[in-house]
Design goal:
The protein is an alpha/beta fold and 352 residues long. The chain contains twelve helices and 13 strands. The strands form two sheets. The chain has a seven-stranded mixed beta sheet. Helix 4 packs across helix 5. The longest helix is centred in the last third of the chain and has 17 residues. The protein is globular and about 50 Å long. It binds iron/sulfur cluster. The site of iron/sulfur cluster has 11 residues, from strand 8 and helix 12. This is MSMEG_0568 family radical SAM protein.
């Protein structure tokens, strides 16, 4: 089995261990444990039925040592701190992968009604469980970021947001948060993630605030898939995404803009790869990740959705990684963000 196949298998089947750094529900992929797979950060689903386990930092498949080092990420020291008003730092931002601080600055979303919500999303579930707070204030984020850099060697910050009702779709609060963090830790690279803002000038505001990279996440380029899986979000037409990506590349630079593309929503794999190639031509990094059925999402609780097959995930990932290499556009060249982290995707293992 190649390293890429093993990483694909792990992304789909998960591991049967308890690791110190985990994420339960939230925006984007979650219910995962953070490990170092051959030294690189990897967010792997935690599954008691998985054939994979870790023993003495080695990956075992049904008891057989695969010769791959997999080390759990240790619990960061900043998790033990609280703000003066008693909020645990862990409720404000969390460690992702090996050295990424990640936060959802507004944990609610105007699209969270059952008929509007993205069917794979559980952004408000972590709020309901008490593991986070609804709105992170700029000064709270600055305090946590400073401590995480000082105590745990954090190297980048990812700030996402639920979508707000305003025309900026939440980008203005992101800008305020970026400004505060940059004042506290000027050298910490920051990626912001939001929907295409109604006014594209907001992208310059984010850049002026100090954001180094941006993710504008479409999840699928197929309008039928979008309507079925993201009834609320798909009301923003793809043309708005294209305009926002183009402006973001102008403002942030080539390969400092990214978007998620989920594999396994029923899209045509060839169309996904050709759509990814078009994004790469625009200077946008297509962050290809497997769709993961998570308990507490409509995809699982109502639809009974299943993940993609390993063959499809590996094929799509390898082809998109090859396109990225051809364009000399690597995830590790992004200053911050999911493409730079890479833990939720197999792209970096495949050379993208
Ligand atoms: S890829 Fe993004 S969501 Fe996944 S662990 Fe890294 S920063 Fe977090």
């Amino acid at each position: 089995m190649t390293e890429v196949s093993t990483r694909v298998d792990l992304a789909l089947l998960g591991i049967r261990v308890d690791v110190p750094v985990q994420r339960r529900s939230g925006a984007g992929p979650s219910d995962d444990g953070h490990v170092l797979f051959g030294g690189a950060g990897a967010a792997i689903p935690l599954r008691p039925e998985s054939p994979y386990t870790i023993r003495a930092d080695r990956l075992l498949y049904e008891g057989t040592d695969l010769g791959v080092t997999v080390e759990p990420v240790r619990r960061p020291r900043f998790y033990d701190l609280r703000t003066a008003d008693g909020v645990a730092y862990e409720q404000i931002a969390r460690l992702h992968g090996k050295d990424v601080l990640a936060t959802t600055v507004v944990q609610t979303c105007i699209r969270y009604g059952e008929d509007q919500r993205c069917r794979f999303c559980s952004v408000e579930a972590s709020l309901a469980s008490g593991s986070t707070i609804a709105v992170k204030r700029p000064d709270q984020l600055a305090e946590v970021a400073e401590a995480a850099v000082r105590l745990d060697g954090i190297r980048q910050l990812v700030m996402t947001t639920g979508t707000s009702a305003g025309k900026d779709r939440g980008a203005r609060h992101l800008a305020r948060c970026v400004r505060a963090v940059k004042q506290a830790v000027p050298t910490l690279p920051i990626q912001v993630q939001c929907e295409p803002p109604g006014d594209l000038a907001t992208l310059s505001e984010l850049r002026d605030a100090g954001a180094d990279a941006i993710g504008i996440h479409v999840e699928s380029l197929d309008d039928r898939v979008r309507a079925r899986w993201m009834p609320g979000k798909s009301t923003v037409p793809l043309s708005d995404y294209r305009a926002a990506w183009a402006e973001a590349v102008r403002v942030f630079g080539r390969n400092q803009v990214s978007t998620y593309l989920l594999v396994g929503l029923g899209e045509d794999p060839d169309e996904l790869v050709s759509g990814a190639a078009e994004l790469i031509t625009m200077g946008v990094y297509p962050f290809v990740v497997p769709f993961r059925p998570l308990a507490g999402t409509l995809a699982v609780d109502v639809d009974g959705a299943i993940p993609p097959t390993a063959a499809v995930l590996e094929d799509v990932t390898r082809r998109v990684a090859a396109e990225l290499r051809r364009a000399d556009m690597l995830g590790t060249d992004q200053k911050a963000g999911c493409a730079a982290c890479g833990a939720c995707s197999v792209l970096q293992t495949a050379g993208g």
